[in-house]
Structure formats: C-alpha cells, structure tokens
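for the recovery benchmark. tokens below, seq after
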C-alpha cells in the first residue's frame, strides 16, 4: 500500500510539502505541511476516501467556498481547498497549542472563569457566522483550538460542505455528521433543516463538559446517547459542581432545551447570559400541578414560600449586589485586508480618551501600511486618508486628531477631515500632552514641540548611553513617564521627569509605562506581563510593591503592545514574544526562511562582499554582540566578547573583517574592526568625543565614513576620513539630519537619507566632492538606501511601506530611470536611522528580519473595567 504522505507530496508538488500526520477525525485526516507559495506552516486536511468517493469534488468545493469569507478572531480561516488525484483537501493555519479535547482529556474540568471565557469567545464566533447564514453543525471540543490562551473554532462549515456534497447519501459511508455527545435533538432525529439553535445546543454541551467533566448525556453506545438527548430530563451543572454560578447553570439549561424555539434566539444572547449574574431560566416547581389531599398543605407551603421569597428579594436588594467580574475582555482583531501590521519598536495602536474607539496601524489597500479608525460599535474600521506609511499613532487629549510618525516626521491628521500636517520633520514616537505639546525622544534626549508645529526644544537632560523612548504625559501637566533603553529589554527602566523637565528620575525595571487615574503606573515586563505599581504623581515616587495583572502581552523589541484610555479601558495585543528570524524575500515578495533554527533579537544584517556570510547584531541576555553566520544554514561565531553593546556591522571591502560600533572601551560608541573569522583582537578605527552610530567603507578601502548619533553632535552628520589623514572631514553635514550613508560600488556616488524637504527622502551626491551636485531620488518618502552590487539600481524603503528599486546610471553622469515598487515591506523590521536589510549579489533577493511569529497573528484584546480592577487592588 503506497505511503499516504508520499502520495500527497506527489499530488501537491510545488504547492505544499507534507511533513507528518497530526491526527485523524471522523471526516478527515490532518497533516502538518509547509505552504511553499507563502512560506508558512499549515494544517492540511484530507477527507476520508470513503467519504470523498460519494461527496463529489465539484459540490464539496463549491459549498466550502462559503466559509472562506468568514473572518473573525475566533474562527480559524480557510486558506485553500482543492482536489488532487481524487483526494479532496482543505487547508487551514497550523495552530501551535492544543485542542480543547486534549485539554479536557488531561484535566477533565476547567476553572469556571476559563470555561466561561472559552464559551463566550466561541459564542461570539458563532454569532458572527450565523448572521452571515453559516451554521457550523459540528461544535465539539476537538474543533476548538487554544492558541496563546485564546480559543479558535476550526472546521467551520466543513460539515455543511460534506452534507451538501453527499446529497443525502452520507449513510452509505457508515459515517454521520455531528458527534453523538454534542448533537442537538433535531440532529438526533434526523432533521436536515438545522439552524443556529443547533450550534447553540452543542456549545451548551461543551460548556457543561468543561465545568462538570463529562457531556450532559452519556451512554454505552451512540444509540443510547441519542436516546437520552431526545428524552432525558434537563441537567444542572450546579448540582454536579457547586462553584458553577446560578446564571451560568441557567444559561446552559436554556441552551440545552429540547425544542429549538425554547433556546436562545442567538449565540450573542447566550454570551450575554453567561456574563449576567441575574440571568435565570425555568421554574423550580409548578403550584397548579399539585393534586389530591396534599393540595391544601401545598398551597400553604406555597404561600409561605412566596413570603420567604419576598423577604429574600428585600434582603438581596437592601444590601449591595455582587459585583460583576472586574475585567471583561472582548476581541477586536481586524480582519483580512485591514489586519494589524506590527512595526518593530513602536506601539501599533492607541485608544480614544473615552475608550469608544481606537486607531491602529493596518494594511493599506494598495500594499504597505496606513492608519485605521475602529469604533467599537461598528463592524468595520475606516481608513484615515494621508497616513500611508504611518506608525506609532497617538490620539489627542480631545479625541479629535491623531498624531503619527511617517518617514521620520511627526504629523497630525484631523478626524473631521483634511490632509495631514507636519509638526516636525525629524521627530520620534509622539506623545500628546494636555498642555498642547507633543513630546518625543531622539536618542538620549526628550524633546517637545507645539502640536501646531514649530521648533522642538529639549525637555530633559541627556542621559549617557540611555535612550529615552515611550514618553507618556502625566495628568495636569505633572510631567512625563519615560522608558530608558539601555541595552536588552530586560535592562530597560521606567523613569519620570517633573513638569518643568530637566532631571530624569529612575523608578523601576520595565518597559512602556502608562498612568492610571487610580494612582498607579501600569507597565510591562520583558516576559510580557502587565504590572501595576502605586505611584505618587506629585512626588514622582513608587509607594508600594507591584502587582501582576495580565500575561501574554506582545512586544516589539522595547515596545510592549498595550495602551490605556483616560476612561480606564485597556487595549493590548497578545503574543508569545519569540523574537525575530532572518528571511530571504524575492523581488516579487516570495519569502523563504534563511535558517528556521536561528532566531532572536536580530538587527542590522550585512552580507559579505561575496554573499556567503552574514554579519548581524544579536541582542543577548546582558549585551548586544556581532555575530557572523555562514549562509544559509551554516555555523555561526560570536565576533564580539566585550562591552555592553556592539551594533551596526559593515564589512571591509576585502571581506576579511567587520567594522562595528561598540562601547567596549568608553561610555560613548566608537568604531572598531575585527577579523570575521574571530581571530585577533578588535582594532580601534575611530574614537571621538561624540557617539558614532554607523560606518561605511569606500570600495577601495581608502575612505571610512561614519555618522554621528543624532542629538549627540549636531542632528546627525556624515563625516569621512581618508587613510593617513589626521582627522575626519565633513562629507554631508548640515542643520538637517543625514542618515544611512551608502557608497556606490564604483566609489563615485554617495546615497543617504535627509529630512531637509520636511520629510525623510533619499539623496545622491558625488563622492568625495559632495558639494558639486545633488539629486533627489525618492518621491514620497524614503529611508535605508542600498546599492545593487553592479551599481545599476538603488533600493530604498518608501514612505508607503514598500521596497523600491530605482534604475540609475553611475558610470558617466548620474541619472535616474524607472522606479519600481517591488513588494510591501511593512511586515519586516525597519529603522529609519540605519538599514535593516541587505541585497544579494544578483539583486534578486533581499535579506530581511521579521517576527518569528509572523504566521501567528496577534489578537487585539480590549479589556473594559480595567480601572475597576486597579481600584480593587488598592494603592499598596
């Protein structure tokens, strides 16, 4: 008998590569596979041969398409479906985690709150699908997957496709749709016209099992189970487990009513009943049913019971009612076409002051990224025009405008209409204060500028080797909270500065702090936990121990993905925080992993001149170091061993050594060179009184260029030193910010970025006589220039979030030709101050850095009642 995996790989060659079988269900066998076209792991499900034989490919594939349009955070999407050599298959994301079935087999019962959370999330997914006319028909624990603590419903509509495709001949296979324990009475009696009430019944069964440890009706055979489903008396979860709240028991009993008309009218009603402590269903006794000599006694007892009930109602209403759960979570993850596009180093969303809407960085229709505004009462977000390429949104205190960062410039856009306006051409992540000022950090200083525009002024003192990021204004102009980026995220510190600026006061370890009106600061740990610490806003002091609140918060480097509204709502992105990976990306955007086993906090990749090795900065537990790796899956060596931070590697022209910045011998960053094979000691290239941020060699090795760190000397200048000269000379040094120097392969031209036009663009000048001429190459914002190895193209990242290639002439007079947008690059790590990619020798591939969880989209989670939870914790 042929190997089924070999048969599948032969049938699906070029599309999927099947690795191994994951499991087998009633209708399909599940395999783990690689989606070769999209570079992602998937679950490939193949219908049982006996089922596929009678279903019919055309009908099955036509019906399954109806489920492909379902886009919901708790519904596992359908990627693909098809027929190959008489095999009917469909493809879904591979979810790292376990099914609810596996969890229940191991633990039997779940904590009450967790069970309610899972049931509520599934109910939200069902309500979404039911309103679109799609019924699941096979709700059961094995179809509920749990990923990063969040439930996802799989195989949505597959049962419908099978039943429709089999055209009533399903009994010929000996199989049935639905699992006996979770089948509704109408399914058990063979009624084909099932509706939403069938899914609600099955979800009630699943919730009952999560709480009690077994389904509501059990038996030794499927026939016995179906008989109980049709005729047995109602069940009570509270009778089996006293900790189950009465309203939850009542909701389950209504969901399990025999008649569909007696159940909830919608899945959302089921979810609301689970959250409502006052929900009840059914009567304990019917007085009118009493007969015979007991009637008089019964009436008397009934009267006494009514009196007691009235007294009970008075007692309940006379004292405070039980408080509902302090925090209520809802999932607001945008769907396909508008999905969240994470950006390295910034928070990707912001809440309105009243918590009724949020703005986030999402997909732009034409590729790249832009800002979207999502009102919680609306199903779909609305695009904010003119925000292409934007990151780091920040809502104004009055909720009427949004500030953001694009191509290095801080801009604002009014929600009442009109184009964006530029506040400052060279800025940082904006923080909008109630005083009408926008605060931002650039390297070692925090600046402020009027929101209407103007000249930025320093607000804080400079801190040696500590970048000031993540500014958050305190209420009533009381100052700022800051994150101090020292080295690794584990070394980051939360700090504060008073209302007049100046001295920065260190508070505690953590990243990205927000102030709550309850008198706490909420901050994140590198492990992804949100903490609350009591805080005296007048004295800028922590007054008690920190308390953990939420786990599983995603982080993009130093930027933990959460924010608070003034009203006390919390919005955060879930994530495992597994670091970054290196990928090859073709000109058409096809992605291939460099080495799946090589992940971490990676930055500034630089290919050797022959393309066989890669130098890259790797953030470790206590330091950042330069590593050299043989491509693709060869060994790697750690090049640097001393100092807290070594960064920005670049190769010497002969490929024998790597030059990098390091603080190994002084508090500021100097330029060092070390042999790429790890032998010998590093050689000091440049030691200046100011910090050096990056280097570039001329092809003949005669010139070594370097850029000054912004805010330390000037606003970012490019200087160069010829071998034998005593001191460096200004190459491009103006009042503007010049970044990312790149010399052409023939050594005649210098490309760099500058904000002199009001936004960051790419310029080219002659080298070394840079004052003779100048050409503007980019047209709508540009950062991170790189030359092709033959000098015929100049690449850069556009303000619209795309990788761009410009044809150039460099042998004679410089000129530009056609400009091509190659692929959206917003999923990859970027840094306007230093290139975060490199180009292969043939110019056909780019090596980039992306999140190692790129295939597992974060969930956006809104927590209402978060402020009440902080109040419950108290100040200390």
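predicted aa per position
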């Amino acid at each position: 008998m042929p190997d089924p995996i070999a048969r599948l790989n032969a049938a699906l060659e070029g599309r999927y590569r099947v690795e191994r079988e994951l499991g087998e269900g009633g209708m399909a066998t599940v395999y783990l596979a690689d989606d070769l076209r999209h570079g992602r792991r998937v679950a490939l499900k193949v219908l049982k041969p006996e089922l596929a034989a009678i279903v019919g490919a055309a009908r099955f594939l036509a019906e399954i398409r109806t489920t492909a349009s379902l886009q919901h955070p708790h519904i596992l999407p359908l990627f693909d479906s098809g027929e190959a050599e008489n095999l009917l298959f469909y493809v879904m994301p591979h979810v790292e985690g376990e099914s609810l079935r596996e969890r229940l087999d191991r633990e039997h019962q779940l904590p009450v709150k967790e069970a309610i959370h899972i049931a509520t999330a599934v109910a939200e997914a069902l309500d979404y699908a039911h309103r679109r006319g799609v019924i699941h028909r096979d709700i059961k624990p094995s179809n509920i997957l749990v990923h990063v603590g969040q439930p996802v419903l799989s195989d949505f509509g597959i049962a419908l496709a099978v039943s429709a495709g089999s055209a009533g001949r399903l009994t010929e296979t000996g199989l049935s749709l639905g699992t006996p324990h979770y089948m509704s009475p109408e399914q058990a009696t063979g009624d084909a016209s099932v509706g939403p009430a069938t899914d609600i019944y099955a979800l009630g069964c699943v919730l009952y099992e999560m709480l009690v440890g077994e389904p509501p009706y059990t038996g030794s055979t499927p026939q016995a189970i179906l008989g109980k489903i049709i005729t047995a008396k109602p069940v009570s979860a509270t009778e089996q487990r006293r900790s189950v709240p009465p309203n939850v028991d009542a909701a389950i009993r209504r969901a399990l009513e025999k008649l569909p008309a007696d159940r909830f009218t919608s899945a959302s009603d089921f979810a609301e009943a689970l959250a409502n402590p006052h929900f009840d269903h059914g009567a304990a006794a019917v007085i009118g049913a009493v007969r015979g000599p007991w009637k008089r006694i019964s009436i008397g007892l009934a009267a006494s019971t009514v009196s007691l009930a009235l007294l009970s109602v008075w007692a309940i209403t006379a004292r405070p009612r039980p408080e509902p759960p302090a925090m209520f979570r809802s999932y607001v993850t945008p769907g396909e076409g508008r999905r969240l596009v994470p950006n390295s180093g910034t928070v990707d969303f912001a809440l309105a002051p009243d918590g009724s809407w949020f703005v986030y960085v999402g997909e732009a229709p034409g590729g790249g990224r832009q800002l979207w505004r999502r009102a919680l009462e609306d199903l779909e977000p609305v695009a904010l025009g003119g925000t292409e390429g934007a990151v780091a949104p920040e809502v104004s205190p009055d909720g009427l405008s949004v500030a953001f960062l694009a191509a290095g410039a801080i801009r604002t856009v009014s929600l009442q209409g009109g184009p964006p306006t530029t506040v400052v051409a060279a800025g940082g992540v904006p923080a909008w204060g109630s005083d009408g000022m926008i605060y931002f950090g650039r390297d070692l200083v925090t600046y402020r500028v009027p929101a209407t525009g103007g000249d930025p002024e320093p607000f804080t003192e400079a801190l040696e080797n500590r970048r000031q990021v993540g500014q958050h204004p305190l209420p009533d102009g009381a100052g700022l909270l800051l994150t101090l980026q020292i080295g690794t995220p584990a070394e980051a510190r939360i700090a504060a500065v008073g209302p007049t600026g100046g001295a920065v006061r260190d508070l505690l370890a953590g990243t990205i702090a927000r102030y709550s009106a309850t008198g706490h600061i909420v901050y994140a740990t590198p492990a992804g936990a949100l903490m609350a610490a009591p805080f005296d806003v007048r004295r800028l002091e922590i007054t008690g121990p920190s308390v953990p609140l939420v786990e599983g918060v995603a982080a993009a480097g130093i930027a933990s993905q959460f924010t608070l509204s003034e009203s006390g709502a919390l919005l955060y992105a879930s994530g495992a925080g597994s670091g970054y990976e290196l990928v090859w990306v073709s000109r058409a955007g096809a992605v291939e992993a460099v080495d799946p086993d090589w992940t971490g906090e990676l930055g500034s990749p630089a290919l050797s001149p022959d393309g066989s090795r890669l130098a890259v900065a790797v953030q470790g537990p206590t330091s950042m170091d330069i590593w050299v790796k043989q491509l693709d899956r060869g060994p790697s060596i750690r090049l640097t061993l001393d100092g807290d931070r070594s960064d920005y590697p670049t190769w010497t022209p002969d490929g024998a050594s790597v030059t990098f910045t390091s603080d190994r011998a002084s508090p500021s960053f100097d330029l060092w060179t070390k042999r790429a094979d790890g032998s010998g000691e590093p050689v000091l290239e440049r030691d200046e009184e100011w910090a050096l941020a990056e280097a570039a060699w001329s092809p003949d090795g005669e010139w070594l260029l370097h850029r000054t760190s912004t805010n330390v000397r000037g606003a970012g200048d490019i200087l160069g030193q010829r071998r034998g000269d005593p001191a460096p000379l200004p190459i491009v040094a103006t009042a503007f910010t010049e970044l990312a120097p790149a010399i052409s392969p023939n050594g005649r031209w210098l490309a760099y970025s500058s904000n002199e036009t009001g936004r960051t663009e790419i310029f080219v000048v002659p080298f070394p006589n840079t004052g003779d001429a100048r050409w503007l190459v980019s047209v709508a914002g540009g950062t991170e220039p790189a030359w092709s190895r033959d000098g015929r193209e100049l690449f850069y990242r556009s303000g619209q979030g795309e990788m761009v290639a410009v044809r150039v002439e460099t042998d004679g007079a410089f000129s530009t030709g056609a400009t091509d947008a190659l692929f959206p690059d917003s999923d990859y790590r970027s840094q306007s101050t230093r290139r975060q990619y490199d180009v292969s020798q043939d110019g056909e591939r780019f090596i980039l850095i992306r999140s190692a969880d790129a295939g597992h989209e974060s969930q956006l989670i809104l927590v209402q009642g978060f402020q009440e939870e902080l109040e419950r914790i108290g100040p200390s």
